[in-house]
Write a structure and sequence with these properties.
This protein is 41% helix and 12% strand. By secondary structure, it is of the alpha+beta class. The radius of gyration is 19 Å and the shape is globular. The termini are far apart.
């Protein structure tokens, strides 16, 4: 179907698989993500299985993310690459990362748009929770893959919070808007965090200026609702309808009595 798969392999959780799609321009990739999801579910069903792209379908094991690798090209030149920088990142590359970090809280409801998304974004399951960047550290929100000589075109930024149940057209739009805002407004990139953030206490995180992503959908929606960047990226029509539909979803969720509540409270209250 014209969708190139670079790698596929079993992941950490039971029956969990990673499929890496070869890079394309943002719109083509969004099309391919949508097509890919439909095809995977259809083929699984044909053979008597069920494929899900839920962020956290099973309690107690790793959830499923959709790490999005991003770079900007001017013609054939990767504008993120600078051979003289210690991280091989250009001014544009640094600004793009700084933009993602700065605007991460307000774009999270778009990258992680379901109640279930926030069951994945918790410490201890390899999902990013803390707003920081690094090269080797997989506990950070943004990772910059190590540079390999002769592979200047591969210089890129990996944004690790999105999940595979998001709307890729909207998610790619707000990530791009955040990164470009960082370039345009010359945001300063903080130093990388190569320590495992999960092992840092609150005092250490505060000292290094490391903040957290929103802890739930309603918190994320409240931040997005105030965001001029997201409104401009999506346009008033999509923005307003997105906020409205997410509030409806939250209201439906919060009035539901869960099995956890019955087990936790019924016998003692």
């Amino acid at each position: 179907m014209g969708i190139e798969v670079e790698y596929s392999h079993h992941e950490v959780a039971p029956s969990q698989h990673e499929i890496d799609l070869r890079y394309k321009d943002a719109l083509t990739m969004a099309d391919q993500v949508m097509t890919h999801r439909i095809v995977v579910k259809e083929i699984a069903q044909r053979y008597g299985y069920y494929a899900t792209f839920m962020p956290k379908p099973i309690f107690g094991v790793n959830g499923s993310g959709m790490h999005v690798h991003q770079s900007l090209f001017k013609g054939d030149k990767n504008t993120f690459f600078d051979p003289n920088d210690e991280y091989h990142l250009s001014t544009e590359g640094r600004g793009y990362i700084a933009g993602l970090l700065m605007h991460a809280p307000e774009i999270t409801s778009v990258a992680n748009q379901w109640v279930n998304s926030y069951k994945r974004l918790v410490p201890g399951y390899e999902a990013p929770v803390y707003i920081s960047w690094a090269r080797r550290n997989r506990s950070t929100l943004v990772r910059v893959p190590m540079y390999k000589p002769g592979k200047e075109e591969a210089t890129r930024v990996e944004y690790r919070s999105p999940d595979p149940a998001c709307n890729p057209y909207l998610a790619f739009s707000v990530m791009l808007a955040a990164g470009l805002a960082g370039i345009k407004n010359r945001y300063e990139l903080p130093p990388p965090t190569e320590k495992d953030v999960y092992l840092m206490n609150d005092e250490e995180k505060a000292k290094e200026g490391i903040k957290s992503l929103p802890g739930g959908l309603i918190e994320a929606i409240a931040l997005t609702e105030k965001s001029e960047l997201v409104r401009e990226a999506l346009g008033d029509h999509v923005f307003n309808n997105f906020i409205t539909s997410k509030k409806v979803e939250w209201d439906r969720y919060r009035v539901n009595v869960t099995e956890w509540e019955l087990k936790e409270y019924l016998g003692v209250l």
